[in-house]
Write a structure and sequence with these properties.
With 329 residues, the protein is mostly helical. 50% of the residues lie in helices and 4% in strands. Strand 2 and strand 3 form a beta hairpin. The radius of gyration is 24 Å and the shape is globular. The N terminus is likely disordered.
C-alpha cells in the first residue's frame, strides 16, 4: 500500500454512502435523525464510521451485536492508527462506535458496553490561522465583474466573512430565510437549531446585487430539476442549488487569486470573522450567539484572542497590573 493510500479512512472497497449497516446500525441512525435532530452531514459521517467499523468486524468474523469485548474495540483503535488516520478522525470514529454499542445495550440487544471504560485518544486543540483584515480585504476585492457568477461569488464570500456561518449553513439558505430590510438572516445550524444573524452593510449590498435583475434571475432555469432548488438562495450556473463542494470551489478560486492557496477555507473565513470581532471589542457571548455554539467553551477555543489584545485588556482592567502613578507627598 502506497503512502497516499495509507492516509485514507479504513473503508476498503466499501461505498460508505450507500452501504447498508446492520439493523441496529440503521436503527441508531434513525434515532439520531428523529430524536436528536442530527443533520444530514452528521448522519453521513456516522454512517461512514459505522460502515468502516462493521466491515472490519465482519472481516474478523464478528458482529457488533455479538460478544465484542473491550480488547476488540482497542484493537480497532490500533487498526485506525495503523492505517494513518489523524487523531481527530479516530476520536470522531470512536464517538460513532461508542454510540452504537450504547444503543445496543439500551435496546437490550447486548448486556455490556465494551466502550464504557475505553478512553478516546486526546485531540490537540489546533486552530487555523485567521486571515489579517488586509488579507480579507484583498480576497473580497478579487471578485471583479458584474455577471451572475461574480455577483454570486461576491455575495458568498461577503456572507461567509460577514456572518461567520458554516459552509453547510450557507448552502442550505433559502430565499425565505432572508429579511434584508431588517438586516437579518435565519440560519439553521447544528442539531437543526435556528438562530437569527445580523447582516452587515457589505454582505447586505452583495446579496441585493445577487438577487437583482443581473444576478440570480439570470440563472433561473425554465424548469426546476428539484422542487427545493426554486427556494435556494444560491444557485449554480445550471440553476440548481449551490452545493457545499461548489461553495468550497468559490472560496478556493479567489484564495488562489490573492496568494492564499493552501491557507484559505470556509472554516478560516468563519474563524477570521470571529477573531476580528473579538479584536474590535465584541463580547465573547455575542460571538457565541453569532457562530451558533452551544457552549461558551467552544467559542473560547475557536476564537483565539491575540496576545496583544489580551495583554492590553488585562493591563487596563486589573488594579495591580498597571504601572504605579506618581507618589503623592
Amino acid at each position: 500500500m502506497g503512502g497516499a493510500a495509507s492516509k485514507c479512512p479504513p473503508q476498503n472497497n466499501v461505498n460508505a454512502e450507500k452501504a447498508a449497516l446492520s439493523l441496529p446500525g440503521e436503527e441508531l441512525l434513525s434515532w439520531l435523525a428523529v430524536e436528536k435532530g442530527r443533520s444530514p452531514n452528521t448522519l453521513a459521517a456516522y454512517r461512514r464510521d459505522l460502515v468502516a467499523y462493521e466491515t472490519w468486524l465482519t472481516n474478523r468474523g464478528e458482529k457488533p451485536a455479538g460478544s465484542v469485548g473491550e480488547a476488540t474495540v482497542a484493537q480497532y483503535v490500533a487498526h485506525l492508527r495503523g492505517v494513518g488516520l489523524a487523531t481527530a478522525s479516530i476520536a470522531r470514529s470512536m464517538v460513532s462506535v461508542r454510540s452504537l454499542h450504547r444503543f445496543l445495550v439500551q435496546e437490550g440487544t447486548t448486556e455490556a458496553d465494551p466502550t464504557l471504560d475505553l478512553k478516546p485518544p486526546p485531540v490537540p486543540q489546533g486552530l487555523p490561522k485567521a486571515l489579517s483584515e488586509d488579507e480579507v480585504g484583498c480576497l473580497l476585492a478579487a471578485v471583479t465583474g458584474g455577471g451572475p457568477p461574480q455577483l454570486r461569488d461576491r455575495a458568498v464570500l461577503e456572507l461567509l466573512y460577514g456572518t461567520g456561518m458554516r459552509i453547510s449553513e450557507l448552502t442550505g439558505l433559502s430565499l425565505s430565510d432572508l429579511a434584508v430590510e431588517d438586516q437579518l438572516v435565519r440560519v439553521l445550524g447544528k442539531g437543526r437549531k435556528e438562530r437569527m444573524v445580523p447582516l452587515g452593510r457589505c454582505a447586505r449590498e452583495a446579496l441585493v446585487a445577487w438577487l437583482g435583475p443581473g444576478g440570480r434571475p439570470v440563472v433561473v432555469p425554465a424548469r426546476w430539476a428539484r422542487r427545493d432548488d426554486s427556494e435556494a438562495l444560491f444557485l449554480n450556473l445550471r440553476g440548481g442549488r449551490l452545493t457545499r463542494q461548489g461553495a468550497w470551489g468559490i472560496v478556493r478560486l479567489y484564495g488562489k487569486r490573492v496568494g492564499l492557496d493552501g491557507r484559505l477555507s470556509p472554516h478560516v473565513m468563519r474563524h477570521s470573522c470571529a477573531t476580528h470581532m473579538l479584536d474590535h471589542g465584541a463580547d465573547i457571548r455575542v460571538v457565541q450567539e453569532l457562530l451558533g455554539h452551544a457552549s461558551i467553551a467552544t467559542t473560547q477555543v475557536y476564537t483565539k484572542v491575540s496576545s496583544e489584545r489580551l495583554r492590553a485588556a488585562y493591563e487596563s482592567a486589573h488594579p495591580r497590573a498597571r504601572a504605579p502613578g506618581p507618589t503623592r507627598t
